[in-house]
Write a structure and sequence with these properties.
Helices cover about 30% and strands about 25% of the residues. The chain is of the alpha+beta class.
Length: about 450
């Protein structure tokens, strides 16, 4: 059933009974009304009606975050139809798009035809521009910041229905907050990004051991524009990857395995079977590494196709940011825990990536060069696989070295913990209170991570 919201200049319908489920199928909610606006006027009217009726509003994008950050029982605004190109400037290599534009569509349909690219992107591009910015999404490269560091300007609509612009030179504190805002400051409607001329990447992948990479970590990081490595849990095996710009022609010899129906289901079936025989996880991981990653691989392709990889099937994921200098300590402690717990379902990969520091108020890389360590447990054929002990052990390790959780991923931290993690956390909360004094854009997740009062009540 659809319910119409009217204004003299526009009319928009909100759908009742619509459910929202994130990509990982780990969280579901049923908003009171579900909207899919296509114009700024429609968004303003939705907020006006929400204000009148004292309703809460949550904006969602593609739903890729494996947490409850987008869930609400109030009004939900789905921005995926708010996805048009506003302006492109080839001379300055900038692009301005509506906030619901998918990163994949921006790159494939807009940037590449104009000979442009983003300097660095995350491993997944089926995310909206605003969602990527709001959650502090990152790629890898010690000289590159999180994706939000490529943002030049943000336009948003406040809870009062006012349109506001912020940038490096206008409303600068708001800009530093909006570049990782969790959707708590308003509805982002447009984003201007600094891009670059299109480029190709030469990727070199080769196997090694965890001690080999950690003993020479600084050299590995310095040797490439975009260095990362992935540890196969319950083994000593590591897959290292260097990605550097090249003018050589495309020559992509990626494994056929990952792009086939057979490969996809072989991995899923193996991990499903291991749920009945937990002691086989280590054997499966060793076998997969030997069959697929034991030989060096090189390929050249356009940047997005090298940066991106397939997430396969739904998974539980947690990703923490630590000071880069503690990388070896954390991974060796995590390896030791896995050795003591051989039956723990720890699927591939433990992915390790690097970013430079920034000054975005609640960016996980705020004020320090950062290592992101991402761990996961798959959900083969949708089956629940126990992961709580693995998560708890990992979090205990990273917290001891000042870890900060990735905002989009599952975690249990609260405003009390975040107030100690981020030097400007209180300033961010003051800006949020000023922008949204009635808490229209809050939900259970944001109350937990931003509001001290709600925890003390």
């Amino acid at each position: 059933m659809k319910v119409s919201v009217n204004m003299a200049s526009c009319k928009i319908s909100g759908e009742q009974g619509r459910s929202f489920t994130n990509w990982a199928t780990t969280f579901t909610c049923k908003p009171e009304l579900y909207f899919e606006p296509t114009t700024t006027e429609e968004i303003i009217q939705i907020l006006k009606e929400a204000r009148r009726l004292s309703k809460r509003v949550k904006v969602c994008g593609y739903g890729h975050s494996p947490s409850d950050i987008a869930c609400t029982d109030g009004y939900m605004i789905d921005m995926r139809r708010f996805n048009q190109l506003i302006d492109i400037n080839e001379k300055n290599c900038t692009v301005k798009v509506q906030s619901g534009c998918l990163l994949k569509d921006l790159i494939d349909d807009v940037l590449e035809p104009h000979g442009m690219a983003m300097q660095n992107i995350a491993a997944i591009s089926e995310v909206t521009i605003a969602g990527m910015i709001c959650t502090g999404t990152h790629g890898t490269g010690a000289n590159y910041g999180i994706i939000s560091t490529q943002v030049l300007e943000i336009e948003l609509i406040t809870a009062a229905g006012k349109e506001v612009i912020c940038s490096h030179t206008e409303n600068t504190d708001l800009f530093r907050a909006a570049c990782c805002s969790l959707g708590a400051l308003g509805v982002i409607t447009a984003v201007t990004l600094q891009c670059e001329p299109a480029f190709k990447l030469h990727q070199r992948q080769w196997p090694g051991t965890l001690d080999e990479v950690l003993d020479n970590l600084d050299e590995h990081i310095a040797s490439s524009e975009h260095f990362k490595f992935s540890l196969m849990p319950h083994t000593e095996s590591v897959l290292m990857s260097r990605m550097d710009r090249t003018k050589e022609p495309v020559s992509d010899v990626s494994s056929w395995f990952w792009s086939t129906f057979v490969g996809y289901h072989c991995v899923q079936f193996a991990y499903w079977l291991s749920s009945f025989f937990p002691s086989t996880v280590g054997f499966i991981n060793r076998t997969l590494f030997y069959l697929l990653f034991s030989k060096p691989l090189e390929r050249i392709n356009i940047s997005r196709k090298v940066f991106n990889f397939d997430c396969f099937f739904p998974q539980y994921v947690t990703d923490w940011a630590i000071p880069r200098e503690h990388t070896a300590t954390v991974l060796r402690e995590l390896r030791a825990w896995l050795r003591e717990n051989p039956n723990q379902a720890a699927h591939f990969w433990i992915e390790v990536r690097f970013c430079r520091s920034d000054n975005i108020m609640i960016s996980p890389a705020y004020g320090r060069d950062t290592c992101f360590i991402n761990i996961l447990v798959y959900r083969p054929y949708g089956k629940f696989i126990p992961y709580a002990n693995y998560w708890a052990a990992y979090e205990n390790i990273v917290k001891r070295v000042g870890g900060r959780p990735h905002w989009a991923k599952a975690h249990k931290e609260t405003a009390k913990e975040f107030s100690h993690m981020y030097p400007e956390f209180n300033k961010f909360c003051e800006i949020r209170q000023k922008m949204d004094p009635q808490g229209m854009f809050l939900n259970a997740y944001l109350e937990r991570v931003l509001c001290m009062d709600s925890q003390q009540a």
